[in-house]
Give the backbone structure.
Amino acid sequence: MMTVDWEEKISTIKKLESSFFSYVGKKLTQKQLAEQIKISNRTISKSEHGYGCPDISLLPSLSTLLDVNIESI
């Protein structure tokens, strides 16, 4: 049975959320960001309000769009 390292998972999610919200510095609206990474702006809103978190599969798109390295997310 595989053991889950919850502290590592939580840390990864927090880093991802931090980068996810950096779209504001790029002067993008929720709608524009959502269109760029092909998700709903509602998904972004839910993440911002703590009701969810971005899917890790969005990392490549987010890193390109926000001009950050995936490793820094």
